[in-house]
Write a structure and sequence with these properties.
Length: 388
């Protein structure tokens, strides 16, 4: 029963990853259809992320009141409605209307499932879980690429919604598996701390800044990687450019797959430090003065590989660093902070690249990588002083 439930949880994270790379992959063509500047993708992305922040901030209260399975079902249903809405959008403003359910569907499911896994499974499971997120995020650029080739960008969103409907059906069928699995009980959920109390815990705010920095870099790659190739490389078809939206997600998947095998041996902190080092190596590859687009292709895969273990490792450490009483609120706050980075920083980059040039992207990414690891090291220090 436990193994079947874990398989369903992995499938849920495929569902979570599916919508995240569609906008970046489809935007070069969507921009032309809507007749808006390239930077306008940032406003749509910001709206989606803003709704996700609201959902993540509500997640501690939802976790106290509802079982994870009901949060998952309602969240996937919201995402499906957003995807279908995008597929029927004929004017730019319509994207903002359907960005509301699109974003609301992401925050609560992300926080609740991460909380469930962090309290019931090992670090290896957490990394494999986020590897499956990468599978979903890798699949959708190819769905969009096929749609651009044979139908249109609208179909990319519609076809993805059909996949989500299938996953939702599996989750509904799995309801009996969610009975009393794991060591974290409903009573633990009811006794968990609130957001205000949690913010006073040493190290919590520093991890929130770190999450902000991590997702600022990650979301910038999600949204602007295809546009980076479109602007800096020549001789690439629309379909090839759209498919490059999967590079960062492929790297994330690879990094989390590797981490799943080694995390129980080397621990979360070493995983994070190694990951940020690899990420910076990939960023430096983008700075190499060459017209060969394959160097940049490899660079983005390396960046994603380095980023891979950072997110799941920080989430998995929450119960250890702050205790089970605070873990739900910590993870919810981390998710909200992460999506603040996802909301605003791709938009900021959109304006920077419009005025300076998209070649500034590697510098932009390395600033946030350094901020991420710096804040985490400070947080570790405060947690040690508190716990030992």
């Amino acid at each position: 029963m436990g193994s079947l439930l874990l398989a369903v949880i992995y499938l849920i994270f495929i569902s979570l990853g599916l919508p995240d790379s569609l906008l970046g992959s489809g935007w070069p063509k969507m921009q032309m259809v809507f007749g808006v500047p390239s930077s306008y993708a940032g406003y749509v992305s910001m709206t989606i992320s803003f709704m996700t922040i609201i959902s993540a901030l509500l997640s501690p209260r939802m976790i106290r009141r509802f079982h994870t399975k009901w949060i998952v079902i309602s969240s996937i249903a919201l995402t499906i409605s957003g995807l279908i809405g995008f597929s029927f959008s004929r004017q730019y403003w319509m994207l903002f209307v359907f960005a509301i359910p699109y974003g609301l569907g992401a925050g609560a499911i992300d926080a609740s499932v991460n909380h469930y896994v962090a309290n019931n499974y090992s670090g290896a499971v957490m990394n494999f879980l986020h590897c499956f997120y990468g599978i979903g995020a890798v699949i959708s650029p190819y769905i969009m690429s096929l749609a651009l080739k044979y139908a249109g960008w609208n179909e990319g969103y519609r076809w993805t919604s059909f996949v989500q409907m299938g996953i939702l059906a599996v989750v509904i069928l799995s309801l009996p598996l969610w009975k009393k699995n794991g060591s974290y009980t409903d009573e633990d959920n009811r006794n968990s701390a609130g957001i205000r109390e949690t913010l006073k815990e040493p190290g919590v705010v520093l991890t929130l800044i770190a999450f902000f920095a991590y997702c600022a870099g990650e979301a910038t790659c999600f949204l602007w990687t295809p546009s980076y190739f479109a602007a800096t490389k020549t001789g690439l078809t629309d379909e090839r450019i759209a498919s490059f939206g999967s590079l960062i997600f492929g790297g994330l998947m690879l990094g989390r797959l590797i981490s799943g095998f080694i995390s129980n041996r080397i621990g979360d902190k070493r995983l994070i430090r190694t990951g940020v080092f690899v990420e910076c190596a990939g960023i430096l590859m983008l700075l190499m003065p060459t017209a060969n687009y394959w160097i940049a292709v490899i660079g983005f895969v390396v960046i994603g590989t380095g980023m891979g273990p950072v997110y799941p490792a920080i989430q998995h450490m929450a119960p250890t660093n702050f205790g089970k009483r605070y873990s739900a609120a910590v993870i919810g706050l981390q998710m909200a902070s992460a999506y603040v980075g996802s909301t605003f920083m791709p938009m900021v980059f959109g304006h920077l690249q419009q005025n300076i040039g998209i070649g500034i992207m590697p510098v932009y990414l390395i600033v946030f990588a350094v901020l991420n690891i710096g804040m985490l090291e400070m947080a570790y220090s405060k947690c040690r002083k508190t716990n030992f």
